[in-house]
Design a protein that fits this description.
Elements lengths: L11 H26 L10 E5 L2 E5 L10 E2 L8 E2 L9 H4 L2 H4 L8 H4 L20 H4 L9 H12 L30 H9 L17 H12 L10 H5 L22 H5 L7 E2 L2 E2 L9 H4 L2 H9 L1 H4 L12 H14 L9 H8 L1 H4 L24 H5 L3 H10 L15 H16 L22 H11 L1 H4 L23 H5 L3 H10 L15 H15 L10
Antiparallel strand pairs: 1-2, 3-4, 5-6
Protein backbone atom coordinates (compact mmCIF):
# COMPACT_ATOMS: atom_id res chain seq x y z
CA UNK A 1 0.00 0.00 0.00
CA UNK A 2 1.39 3.37 -0.97
CA UNK A 3 1.46 5.61 2.06
CA UNK A 4 2.96 8.52 0.13
CA UNK A 5 6.48 8.11 1.43
CA UNK A 6 7.83 7.17 -2.03
CA UNK A 7 6.22 10.07 -3.88
CA UNK A 8 8.59 12.83 -5.07
CA UNK A 9 8.30 16.24 -3.42
CA UNK A 10 5.66 18.53 -4.94
CA UNK A 11 8.27 21.07 -6.03
CA UNK A 12 10.11 18.59 -8.30
CA UNK A 13 7.73 18.78 -11.29
CA UNK A 14 7.58 22.61 -11.41
CA UNK A 15 11.36 22.75 -11.13
CA UNK A 16 11.84 20.29 -14.01
CA UNK A 17 9.35 22.27 -16.12
CA UNK A 18 11.21 25.49 -15.40
CA UNK A 19 14.58 23.89 -16.22
CA UNK A 20 13.24 22.59 -19.54
CA UNK A 21 11.81 26.02 -20.37
CA UNK A 22 15.14 27.72 -19.62
CA UNK A 23 17.02 25.16 -21.72
CA UNK A 24 14.72 25.63 -24.69
CA UNK A 25 14.99 29.40 -24.38
CA UNK A 26 18.79 29.24 -24.24
CA UNK A 27 18.88 26.97 -27.29
CA UNK A 28 16.64 29.32 -29.26
CA UNK A 29 18.76 32.31 -28.24
CA UNK A 30 21.98 30.63 -29.39
CA UNK A 31 20.40 29.62 -32.71
CA UNK A 32 18.98 33.08 -33.40
CA UNK A 33 21.88 35.08 -32.00
CA UNK A 34 24.51 32.70 -33.36
CA UNK A 35 23.11 32.80 -36.87
CA UNK A 36 23.41 36.59 -37.01
CA UNK A 37 26.75 36.83 -35.24
CA UNK A 38 28.77 36.49 -38.44
CA UNK A 39 27.69 38.34 -41.52
CA UNK A 40 28.29 36.06 -44.47
CA UNK A 41 27.26 38.77 -46.97
CA UNK A 42 24.63 36.43 -48.32
CA UNK A 43 27.21 33.93 -49.52
CA UNK A 44 27.11 30.20 -48.90
CA UNK A 45 28.68 28.67 -45.83
CA UNK A 46 31.72 26.68 -46.87
CA UNK A 47 31.74 23.12 -45.59
CA UNK A 48 34.85 21.03 -46.11
CA UNK A 49 35.76 17.56 -44.96
CA UNK A 50 39.27 16.19 -44.59
CA UNK A 51 40.76 12.99 -43.24
CA UNK A 52 42.74 13.19 -40.00
CA UNK A 53 44.21 9.92 -38.80
CA UNK A 54 41.43 7.97 -40.48
CA UNK A 55 38.67 10.14 -39.03
CA UNK A 56 36.59 12.47 -41.23
CA UNK A 57 36.62 16.03 -39.87
CA UNK A 58 34.19 18.71 -41.06
CA UNK A 59 34.75 22.45 -40.76
CA UNK A 60 33.13 25.77 -41.69
CA UNK A 61 36.31 27.72 -40.97
CA UNK A 62 37.12 28.65 -44.58
CA UNK A 63 33.80 30.49 -44.83
CA UNK A 64 35.65 33.41 -43.23
CA UNK A 65 39.23 32.21 -43.47
CA UNK A 66 39.36 31.70 -47.22
CA UNK A 67 42.39 29.61 -48.13
CA UNK A 68 43.20 29.52 -44.45
CA UNK A 69 44.03 33.21 -44.20
CA UNK A 70 43.12 35.88 -41.67
CA UNK A 71 39.80 37.61 -42.47
CA UNK A 72 39.89 41.28 -43.49
CA UNK A 73 37.40 42.99 -41.21
CA UNK A 74 35.98 45.44 -43.76
CA UNK A 75 34.82 42.64 -46.06
CA UNK A 76 34.99 39.87 -43.43
CA UNK A 77 33.78 36.82 -45.27
CA UNK A 78 35.06 37.18 -48.78
CA UNK A 79 38.70 38.26 -48.52
CA UNK A 80 41.57 37.35 -46.28
CA UNK A 81 45.29 37.82 -45.79
CA UNK A 82 47.32 34.84 -47.02
CA UNK A 83 48.17 32.03 -44.59
CA UNK A 84 51.89 31.70 -43.81
CA UNK A 85 53.73 28.91 -45.56
CA UNK A 86 53.61 25.77 -43.42
CA UNK A 87 55.47 23.39 -45.75
CA UNK A 88 55.79 20.44 -45.60
CA UNK A 89 52.25 20.61 -44.19
CA UNK A 90 49.26 21.41 -46.41
CA UNK A 91 46.17 23.31 -45.31
CA UNK A 92 43.93 21.35 -47.67
CA UNK A 93 44.98 18.13 -45.91
CA UNK A 94 45.05 19.37 -42.30
CA UNK A 95 42.27 21.92 -42.27
CA UNK A 96 42.22 24.53 -39.53
CA UNK A 97 41.12 22.92 -36.28
CA UNK A 98 43.81 20.23 -36.30
CA UNK A 99 46.39 22.92 -35.44
CA UNK A 100 44.41 25.97 -34.32
CA UNK A 101 41.64 24.10 -32.44
CA UNK A 102 38.30 25.89 -32.11
CA UNK A 103 34.86 24.50 -32.98
CA UNK A 104 34.93 24.13 -36.74
CA UNK A 105 31.21 23.50 -37.22
CA UNK A 106 29.98 26.41 -35.11
CA UNK A 107 28.20 29.39 -36.69
CA UNK A 108 28.80 31.75 -33.77
CA UNK A 109 32.19 33.48 -33.79
CA UNK A 110 32.71 33.21 -30.03
CA UNK A 111 31.85 29.53 -29.99
CA UNK A 112 33.84 28.74 -33.13
CA UNK A 113 36.93 30.30 -31.53
CA UNK A 114 36.67 28.13 -28.45
CA UNK A 115 33.95 27.14 -26.04
CA UNK A 116 33.92 28.78 -22.60
CA UNK A 117 35.05 26.92 -19.50
CA UNK A 118 38.62 25.70 -19.18
CA UNK A 119 39.52 26.71 -22.74
CA UNK A 120 40.23 23.21 -24.05
CA UNK A 121 39.22 24.24 -27.60
CA UNK A 122 40.30 27.89 -27.46
CA UNK A 123 41.94 29.08 -30.69
CA UNK A 124 45.75 28.84 -30.75
CA UNK A 125 47.88 31.24 -32.73
CA UNK A 126 51.52 32.21 -33.24
CA UNK A 127 53.97 30.39 -30.99
CA UNK A 128 51.06 28.67 -29.25
CA UNK A 129 50.61 26.41 -32.26
CA UNK A 130 53.56 24.26 -31.23
CA UNK A 131 51.37 23.05 -28.37
CA UNK A 132 49.66 20.90 -31.03
CA UNK A 133 52.76 19.55 -32.78
CA UNK A 134 53.18 16.53 -30.54
CA UNK A 135 49.50 15.68 -30.85
CA UNK A 136 50.36 14.53 -34.38
CA UNK A 137 54.10 13.86 -34.18
CA UNK A 138 55.85 11.42 -31.81
CA UNK A 139 57.85 13.05 -29.02
CA UNK A 140 61.32 13.99 -30.28
CA UNK A 141 63.15 17.21 -31.14
CA UNK A 142 61.10 18.83 -33.90
CA UNK A 143 61.75 22.07 -35.87
CA UNK A 144 59.18 24.67 -34.85
CA UNK A 145 58.30 22.89 -31.58
CA UNK A 146 61.38 23.83 -29.55
CA UNK A 147 59.47 25.14 -26.53
CA UNK A 148 57.09 22.18 -26.43
CA UNK A 149 60.07 19.80 -26.53
CA UNK A 150 61.77 21.83 -23.76
CA UNK A 151 58.59 21.36 -21.75
CA UNK A 152 58.90 17.60 -22.03
CA UNK A 153 62.57 17.74 -20.99
CA UNK A 154 61.62 19.89 -18.00
CA UNK A 155 58.77 17.50 -17.13
CA UNK A 156 61.32 14.69 -16.89
CA UNK A 157 64.06 16.68 -15.13
CA UNK A 158 61.72 17.94 -12.42
CA UNK A 159 60.39 14.47 -11.70
CA UNK A 160 56.80 15.38 -12.60
CA UNK A 161 56.31 11.78 -13.73
CA UNK A 162 56.90 10.56 -10.15
CA UNK A 163 53.50 11.97 -9.18
CA UNK A 164 51.67 12.32 -12.49
CA UNK A 165 51.13 9.73 -15.17
CA UNK A 166 51.28 10.40 -18.88
CA UNK A 167 50.36 7.80 -21.49
CA UNK A 168 53.09 5.20 -22.04
CA UNK A 169 54.78 5.96 -18.72
CA UNK A 170 55.06 2.89 -16.52
CA UNK A 171 54.97 4.75 -13.21
CA UNK A 172 53.51 7.84 -11.63
CA UNK A 173 49.94 8.83 -10.92
CA UNK A 174 49.77 7.94 -7.25
CA UNK A 175 49.86 11.50 -5.91
CA UNK A 176 48.69 13.66 -8.82
CA UNK A 177 46.07 13.50 -11.56
CA UNK A 178 46.64 11.50 -14.72
CA UNK A 179 47.85 13.95 -17.38
CA UNK A 180 47.59 11.55 -20.33
CA UNK A 181 44.76 13.58 -21.91
CA UNK A 182 45.05 16.87 -20.03
CA UNK A 183 45.35 18.79 -23.33
CA UNK A 184 41.87 17.59 -24.31
CA UNK A 185 40.42 19.07 -21.13
CA UNK A 186 42.33 22.27 -20.35
CA UNK A 187 43.53 25.26 -22.33
CA UNK A 188 46.95 26.88 -22.16
CA UNK A 189 45.86 29.54 -19.65
CA UNK A 190 44.40 26.99 -17.24
CA UNK A 191 47.49 24.79 -17.55
CA UNK A 192 49.84 27.70 -16.87
CA UNK A 193 47.73 28.79 -13.88
CA UNK A 194 47.80 25.27 -12.42
CA UNK A 195 51.59 25.13 -12.73
CA UNK A 196 52.22 28.58 -11.21
CA UNK A 197 49.60 28.40 -8.44
CA UNK A 198 48.75 24.72 -7.86
CA UNK A 199 46.82 25.41 -4.64
CA UNK A 200 44.58 27.99 -6.30
CA UNK A 201 42.25 25.22 -7.42
CA UNK A 202 41.81 23.00 -5.55
CA UNK A 203 42.83 24.86 -2.41
CA UNK A 204 43.94 21.64 -0.72
CA UNK A 205 46.35 20.66 -3.52
CA UNK A 206 49.60 19.10 -2.27
CA UNK A 207 51.54 19.92 -5.44
CA UNK A 208 54.56 22.08 -4.56
CA UNK A 209 54.92 25.52 -6.07
CA UNK A 210 58.02 25.04 -8.19
CA UNK A 211 60.22 28.10 -8.79
CA UNK A 212 59.64 28.05 -12.55
CA UNK A 213 60.37 31.05 -14.74
CA UNK A 214 57.68 32.39 -17.08
CA UNK A 215 59.34 30.71 -20.06
CA UNK A 216 59.48 27.37 -18.22
CA UNK A 217 55.79 27.60 -17.34
CA UNK A 218 55.01 28.34 -20.98
CA UNK A 219 57.12 25.39 -22.20
CA UNK A 220 55.45 22.98 -19.76
CA UNK A 221 52.03 24.27 -20.83
CA UNK A 222 52.84 23.69 -24.49
CA UNK A 223 53.95 20.12 -23.79
CA UNK A 224 50.94 19.29 -21.61
CA UNK A 225 48.56 20.76 -24.18
CA UNK A 226 49.85 18.16 -26.64
CA UNK A 227 48.74 15.32 -24.33
CA UNK A 228 45.36 14.44 -25.85
CA UNK A 229 42.96 11.53 -25.51
CA UNK A 230 43.58 10.16 -29.01
CA UNK A 231 47.00 11.16 -30.35
CA UNK A 232 47.06 11.22 -34.14
CA UNK A 233 50.42 9.48 -34.48
CA UNK A 234 49.15 6.27 -32.83
CA UNK A 235 46.19 3.98 -33.20
CA UNK A 236 43.61 3.88 -30.39
CA UNK A 237 44.77 0.37 -29.54
CA UNK A 238 48.40 1.52 -29.20
CA UNK A 239 47.37 4.38 -26.94
CA UNK A 240 45.21 2.22 -24.65
CA UNK A 241 47.79 -0.56 -24.50
CA UNK A 242 50.57 1.85 -23.52
CA UNK A 243 52.58 0.99 -26.62
CA UNK A 244 53.66 4.59 -27.22
CA UNK A 245 57.34 5.09 -26.58
CA UNK A 246 58.58 8.10 -24.62
CA UNK A 247 62.15 9.20 -25.33
CA UNK A 248 64.66 8.89 -22.52
CA UNK A 249 66.16 12.12 -21.22
CA UNK A 250 69.71 11.99 -19.86
CA UNK A 251 69.50 13.11 -16.23
CA UNK A 252 73.13 12.81 -15.15
CA UNK A 253 75.28 15.81 -16.16
CA UNK A 254 78.08 14.49 -18.35
CA UNK A 255 80.42 17.43 -17.84
CA UNK A 256 80.66 17.10 -14.04
CA UNK A 257 83.05 14.81 -12.18
CA UNK A 258 80.62 13.00 -9.87
CA UNK A 259 81.55 10.80 -6.95
CA UNK A 260 80.45 7.17 -6.88
CA UNK A 261 76.75 7.13 -6.03
CA UNK A 262 76.20 10.86 -6.62
CA UNK A 263 74.64 10.17 -10.02
CA UNK A 264 71.71 8.55 -8.19
CA UNK A 265 70.64 11.98 -6.93
CA UNK A 266 70.00 12.85 -10.57
CA UNK A 267 68.61 9.50 -11.68
CA UNK A 268 66.13 9.51 -8.78
CA UNK A 269 65.16 13.16 -9.52
CA UNK A 270 66.09 14.01 -5.92
CA UNK A 271 67.58 17.38 -6.90
CA UNK A 272 64.34 18.43 -8.56
CA UNK A 273 63.14 19.21 -5.02
CA UNK A 274 66.01 18.75 -2.55
CA UNK A 275 69.23 20.66 -2.00
CA UNK A 276 72.60 18.98 -2.09
CA UNK A 277 75.72 21.10 -2.07
CA UNK A 278 75.34 23.87 -4.65
CA UNK A 279 72.34 22.20 -6.36
CA UNK A 280 69.01 23.34 -4.95
CA UNK A 281 65.48 22.43 -6.06
CA UNK A 282 64.08 24.87 -3.44
CA UNK A 283 61.17 22.55 -2.59
CA UNK A 284 62.39 20.06 0.04
CA UNK A 285 64.97 19.68 2.86
CA UNK A 286 68.74 19.95 2.42
CA UNK A 287 70.41 16.55 1.97
CA UNK A 288 73.99 17.78 2.32
CA UNK A 289 74.42 16.50 5.89
CA UNK A 290 71.39 14.21 6.10
CA UNK A 291 73.56 11.08 6.10
CA UNK A 292 75.28 12.25 9.27
CA UNK A 293 72.10 13.36 11.02
CA UNK A 294 69.78 10.46 10.20
CA UNK A 295 70.40 6.78 10.88
CA UNK A 296 70.93 4.46 7.95
CA UNK A 297 67.78 2.47 8.70
CA UNK A 298 65.69 5.64 8.82
CA UNK A 299 66.97 6.80 5.44
CA UNK A 300 66.32 3.40 3.88
CA UNK A 301 62.82 3.16 5.36
CA UNK A 302 61.98 6.74 4.42
CA UNK A 303 63.04 6.22 0.83
CA UNK A 304 60.91 3.08 0.64
CA UNK A 305 57.82 4.72 2.17
CA UNK A 306 58.08 8.46 3.01
CA UNK A 307 54.54 8.79 4.37
CA UNK A 308 55.06 5.97 6.86
CA UNK A 309 58.03 7.67 8.49
CA UNK A 310 56.55 11.18 8.30
CA UNK A 311 52.76 10.90 7.94
CA UNK A 312 51.48 13.48 5.49
CA UNK A 313 54.79 13.73 3.63
CA UNK A 314 54.17 14.55 -0.03
CA UNK A 315 57.40 13.04 -1.31
CA UNK A 316 56.51 10.34 -3.89
CA UNK A 317 57.89 6.83 -3.68
CA UNK A 318 61.38 6.45 -5.08
CA UNK A 319 61.81 5.47 -8.73
CA UNK A 320 65.15 3.81 -7.93
CA UNK A 321 65.60 0.08 -7.59
CA UNK A 322 66.25 -1.37 -4.09
CA UNK A 323 69.92 -1.76 -5.00
CA UNK A 324 70.12 1.87 -6.15
CA UNK A 325 68.35 3.08 -3.00
CA UNK A 326 70.90 1.24 -0.86
CA UNK A 327 73.76 2.72 -2.89
CA UNK A 328 72.28 6.23 -2.48
CA UNK A 329 71.99 5.83 1.30
CA UNK A 330 75.61 4.62 1.40
CA UNK A 331 76.66 7.67 -0.63
CA UNK A 332 74.81 10.12 1.63
CA UNK A 333 76.33 8.61 4.75
CA UNK A 334 79.80 8.33 3.27
CA UNK A 335 79.96 11.90 2.00
CA UNK A 336 78.13 13.63 4.88
CA UNK A 337 81.15 14.22 7.04
CA UNK A 338 82.43 17.30 8.74
CA UNK A 339 80.37 20.28 9.88
CA UNK A 340 78.81 23.31 8.23
CA UNK A 341 81.29 26.14 7.93
CA UNK A 342 80.12 29.01 10.12
CA UNK A 343 81.62 31.97 11.90
CA UNK A 344 78.69 32.85 14.18
CA UNK A 345 75.46 31.25 15.44
CA UNK A 346 73.65 33.46 12.92
CA UNK A 347 75.54 31.86 10.02
CA UNK A 348 74.74 28.43 11.47
CA UNK A 349 71.05 29.32 11.69
CA UNK A 350 71.00 30.49 8.09
CA UNK A 351 72.60 27.26 6.91
CA UNK A 352 70.54 24.78 8.93
CA UNK A 353 67.33 26.43 10.13
CA UNK A 354 66.07 29.23 7.91
CA UNK A 355 65.02 26.87 5.08
CA UNK A 356 62.09 25.75 7.27
CA UNK A 357 61.80 28.32 10.06
CA UNK A 358 62.51 31.38 7.82
CA UNK A 359 65.19 34.01 8.13
CA UNK A 360 62.90 36.11 10.34
CA UNK A 361 61.89 33.12 12.48
CA UNK A 362 58.16 33.19 11.70
CA UNK A 363 58.09 29.54 10.54
CA UNK A 364 57.24 30.43 6.94
CA UNK A 365 60.52 29.37 5.39
CA UNK A 366 61.25 28.57 1.77
CA UNK A 367 60.00 24.97 1.95
CA UNK A 368 57.36 25.39 4.66
CA UNK A 369 54.36 24.94 2.31
CA UNK A 370 55.69 21.53 1.27
CA UNK A 371 56.27 20.08 4.75
CA UNK A 372 53.83 17.72 6.46
CA UNK A 373 53.91 19.81 9.66
CA UNK A 374 54.34 23.54 10.11
CA UNK A 375 57.80 24.48 11.46
CA UNK A 376 57.71 26.02 14.91
CA UNK A 377 57.37 29.79 14.75
CA UNK A 378 59.87 31.66 16.95
CA UNK A 379 58.93 35.26 16.22
CA UNK A 380 55.78 36.39 18.01
CA UNK A 381 55.47 33.10 19.87
CA UNK A 382 56.83 34.04 23.29
CA UNK A 383 53.78 32.59 25.03
CA UNK A 384 54.69 29.11 23.80
CA UNK A 385 58.33 29.35 24.85
CA UNK A 386 57.40 30.59 28.33
CA UNK A 387 55.86 27.20 29.05
CA UNK A 388 58.47 24.90 27.49
CA UNK A 389 61.42 23.63 29.45
CA UNK A 390 64.95 24.12 28.18
CA UNK A 391 65.43 20.39 28.52
CA UNK A 392 62.66 19.74 26.00
CA UNK A 393 64.01 22.35 23.55
CA UNK A 394 67.54 20.98 23.72
CA UNK A 395 66.19 17.46 23.25
CA UNK A 396 64.30 18.61 20.14
CA UNK A 397 67.50 19.99 18.60
CA UNK A 398 69.56 17.01 19.70
CA UNK A 399 67.14 14.18 18.80
CA UNK A 400 64.78 15.87 16.36
CA UNK A 401 60.99 15.51 16.53
CA UNK A 402 59.62 12.14 15.50
CA UNK A 403 57.06 12.09 12.69
CA UNK A 404 58.12 15.51 11.41
CA UNK A 405 60.81 16.95 9.14
CA UNK A 406 62.75 18.28 12.16
CA UNK A 407 65.97 16.19 12.01
CA UNK A 408 68.31 15.35 14.92
CA UNK A 409 71.40 17.56 15.04
CA UNK A 410 73.12 15.66 17.84
CA UNK A 411 75.68 14.04 15.50
CA UNK A 412 76.26 17.18 13.44
CA UNK A 413 76.60 19.90 16.08
CA UNK A 414 78.49 20.04 19.35
CA UNK A 415 76.60 20.77 22.59
CA UNK A 416 78.05 24.30 22.52
CA UNK A 417 76.78 24.89 19.00
CA UNK A 418 73.32 23.63 19.86
CA UNK A 419 73.20 25.91 22.89
CA UNK A 420 74.36 28.89 20.81
CA UNK A 421 71.51 28.27 18.35
CA UNK A 422 69.01 28.17 21.20
CA UNK A 423 70.40 31.40 22.68
CA UNK A 424 70.14 33.06 19.25
CA UNK A 425 66.52 31.98 18.85
CA UNK A 426 65.50 33.39 22.24
CA UNK A 427 67.42 36.64 21.85
CA UNK A 428 66.71 37.44 18.20
CA UNK A 429 63.26 35.97 17.58
CA UNK A 430 61.37 35.03 20.75
CA UNK A 431 62.44 38.20 22.52
CA UNK A 432 62.57 36.83 26.07
CA UNK A 433 65.17 35.29 28.31
CA UNK A 434 65.21 31.47 28.36
CA UNK A 435 63.09 30.39 31.33
CA UNK A 436 65.16 29.08 34.21
CA UNK A 437 62.28 27.10 35.63
CA UNK A 438 58.95 26.24 34.06
CA UNK A 439 56.01 25.30 36.21
CA UNK A 440 53.65 23.18 34.20
CA UNK A 441 49.93 23.54 34.99
CA UNK A 442 48.45 20.53 36.76
CA UNK A 443 47.13 17.68 34.68
CA UNK A 444 43.45 16.94 35.26
CA UNK A 445 43.16 13.75 37.31
CA UNK A 446 42.36 10.60 35.38
CA UNK A 447 38.97 9.15 36.38
CA UNK A 448 38.69 5.78 38.04
CA UNK A 449 35.90 4.82 35.68
CA UNK A 450 36.53 5.64 31.99
CA UNK A 451 33.76 7.02 29.82
CA UNK A 452 31.83 4.85 27.40
CA UNK A 453 33.09 4.87 23.83
CA UNK A 454 29.87 6.43 22.52
CA UNK A 455 30.29 9.42 24.84
CA UNK A 456 33.94 9.90 23.82
CA UNK A 457 33.00 9.79 20.14
CA UNK A 458 30.40 12.49 20.74
CA UNK A 459 32.92 14.70 22.55
CA UNK A 460 35.34 14.27 19.65
CA UNK A 461 32.60 15.16 17.17
CA UNK A 462 31.65 18.28 19.11
CA UNK A 463 35.11 19.66 19.85
CA UNK A 464 37.71 18.11 17.52
CA UNK A 465 36.26 16.96 14.21
CA UNK A 466 35.97 20.30 12.43
CA UNK A 467 39.75 20.84 12.65
CA UNK A 468 41.27 17.37 12.97
CA UNK A 469 38.73 15.63 10.75
CA UNK A 470 36.59 12.56 11.29
CA UNK A 471 39.56 10.23 10.72
CA UNK A 472 41.94 12.43 12.73
CA UNK A 473 44.22 13.23 9.77
CA UNK A 474 44.19 16.98 10.45
CA UNK A 475 42.06 17.70 7.38
CA UNK A 476 38.75 18.70 8.89
CA UNK A 477 36.36 21.12 7.17
CA UNK A 478 38.00 24.12 8.91
CA UNK A 479 41.62 22.91 8.65
CA UNK A 480 42.60 25.27 5.82
CA UNK A 481 41.56 28.29 7.88
CA UNK A 482 44.51 27.85 10.24
CA UNK A 483 48.25 28.06 9.99
CA UNK A 484 49.85 26.04 11.53
CA UNK A 485 47.47 23.38 10.30
CA UNK A 486 45.74 21.12 12.87
CA UNK A 487 47.84 18.20 14.10
CA UNK A 488 47.53 14.86 12.30
CA UNK A 489 46.29 12.63 15.11
CA UNK A 490 47.17 9.49 13.15
CA UNK A 491 50.89 10.35 13.24
CA UNK A 492 52.20 7.23 14.97
CA UNK A 493 55.89 8.25 15.26
CA UNK A 494 54.98 11.64 16.77
CA UNK A 495 52.51 10.39 19.38
CA UNK A 496 54.80 7.52 20.27
CA UNK A 497 57.18 10.17 21.56
CA UNK A 498 54.58 11.79 23.87
CA UNK A 499 53.31 10.67 27.24
CA UNK A 500 49.64 10.79 28.19
CA UNK A 501 50.14 13.72 30.55
CA UNK A 502 51.45 15.96 27.81
CA UNK A 503 48.51 15.10 25.54
CA UNK A 504 46.02 15.73 28.35
CA UNK A 505 47.72 19.03 29.24
CA UNK A 506 47.50 20.21 25.63
CA UNK A 507 43.79 19.39 25.48
CA UNK A 508 43.10 21.12 28.75
CA UNK A 509 45.22 24.27 28.29
CA UNK A 510 45.57 24.57 24.51
CA UNK A 511 48.79 25.23 22.63
CA UNK A 512 50.12 28.76 22.24
CA UNK A 513 51.08 29.76 18.72
CA UNK A 514 48.45 27.47 17.18
CA UNK A 515 44.66 27.38 16.83
CA UNK A 516 44.39 24.64 19.47
CA UNK A 517 42.09 26.12 22.16
CA UNK A 518 41.98 25.36 25.88
CA UNK A 519 39.13 22.93 26.50
CA UNK A 520 39.64 22.55 30.23
CA UNK A 521 36.68 24.82 31.01
CA UNK A 522 34.39 23.02 28.58
CA UNK A 523 35.23 19.41 29.32
CA UNK A 524 35.30 17.32 32.45
CA UNK A 525 38.43 15.44 33.50
CA UNK A 526 36.83 12.22 32.27
CA UNK A 527 36.15 13.73 28.84
CA UNK A 528 39.73 15.05 28.57
CA UNK A 529 41.16 11.63 29.34
CA UNK A 530 38.63 10.04 27.03
CA UNK A 531 40.07 12.20 24.23
CA UNK A 532 43.56 11.03 25.21
CA UNK A 533 42.36 7.47 24.72
CA UNK A 534 40.77 8.48 21.39
CA UNK A 535 44.09 9.92 20.19
CA UNK A 536 45.89 6.75 21.25
CA UNK A 537 43.41 4.79 19.15
CA UNK A 538 43.81 7.06 16.12
CA UNK A 539 47.60 7.07 16.30
CA UNK A 540 47.81 3.36 17.21
CA UNK A 541 50.31 4.13 19.95
CA UNK A 542 50.12 1.59 22.71
CA UNK A 543 47.48 0.26 25.05
CA UNK A 544 47.46 2.97 27.70
CA UNK A 545 43.92 3.94 26.79
CA UNK A 546 41.12 2.47 28.84
CA UNK A 547 38.23 3.10 26.49
CA UNK A 548 35.31 0.84 27.25
CA UNK A 549 34.31 -1.29 24.21
Amino acid sequence: MDNGTNRPPKWIEPLLFLAAFVLLGATAFVLIKGGSEIDHKGGPIADITFNLNGEPVREHCVTCHTEGGRPLQETWARASAPHPDIAPHRIDLLGCTSCHLGEGMALDERISHGLPGFGARKILSGQQLQARCFACHPLKPLPGADEAWSGYVLFQEKGCGLCHRIAAAQSGGRFGPDLSDIGSRFGLEKLAQSIKDPDLSPTNSIMPRFPFSSSQVRSLSYFLKSRIADPYFATPMQARAGRIELPEITQVPQEEDLKAGEELLYLGRCLACHKYGAQDGRIAPDLTWIGQMRAKDFLADFMASPARMIPGAIMPDSSLSPEEEKALVDFLQREARGQPAHATPKHLYMQLCQRCHAANGDGKGLIQPNLATFPRAFTGNAQFFKHVTLKRLIRSIDQGIAGTSMPPYGELLSPEERQSLLDLIFKTFVGIEPPVEVRQPPVPPAPDQPLARRRIEQVYQDHCRRCHGLAGTGRGPEALEYLPRPRNLTNTPYFNSLDNERIARTIAYGLAGTAMPALGQSLSAGEIWGLVDKIRDLSQTGTEGQVRP
